[in-house]
Amino acid sequence: MAVINASLLSLLDKFSRQDPDGTIANIVEILTQRTVMMEDLEWVEANNKTGHVVTSRTALPAIQYRRYNEGIAVTKGRTDQVTESIGKMAGMCKVDVELAALGGNPGAFRMSEEDAFLQSFANELETGMFYNSTSTSPEKWMGLAPRFAATANPGGSQIIKMDASASGNDQASMWLVAHGPETVFGIFPTGVPVGLQYTDGGKQLTSDPDGNEFWAWVSSWAWDVGLCVRDWRAVVRVCNIDMGNILATGTALIDAMIRGARKIFKPGMGRLVWYCNRDVMTYLELQAKNSTLNSTLRITEVGGQPILTFRGVPIKETDALLSTESPIT
Question: pTM for this structure?
């Protein structure tokens, strides 16, 4: 007899989700993450089904000075095209019909599992916007970190190193992004609805590992999504934030953020947001208590919630950003 398929819910899973009275428990979602970039992204329908073609001007025509009775040379500009890729995220859940019916209210048991898929999609999207790489995983889209991974790369001038001599895999990055349809935005295939698509497959015959069939409730999700950086001057990466030394850096990170903010070509072209992880946010909030930094860091209250801003630009905390990055040299 084959081992029970780990991808299918078991009787143990059923009992682990019940309160003593037999009803489905209110599950504490300890794996829920802060996915704030999802709230900020603007979405644009791609100009084809597999990606979004961006045309950028890469050279201007040469201008000359002439004298009377002299001709001028014919010149021209240059444009290049880049295709931003789209990844197809998908998930599927199968619940044995009789298992779901145990204790009554099979719909509540199905929902207890489906809620986890929603959070999993959100976590994957947020992480992918920063760290996905089509170089190592062609089926995904290209996130921000691989685009701004070296100062010699296109867009390398947008990288600010807080510590040029940082070492060890305990580095973090902050990101300043100008969101907008002319700068940085999410993409979805032409003709496909935007956002997470849910399909209730109803009751279907499915197979166990031995090939024997049973009835199961089937649910599936699909999300075709990508990231377009139309203008790399709308993104800044402040990197080499050494988490082992951050408490001893004084205002070094603040200085790096100031230099980074000056790298945004046209701040008015998009809606600016800073992103950082929890450790960096804690450091910045402690810095905000210092009266000498009130001109740059402020904690204000919006809707009853404290909001940290840097020169008026909100700083948001996301669990997708790591404290285990390698230094950029």
Answer: 0.84
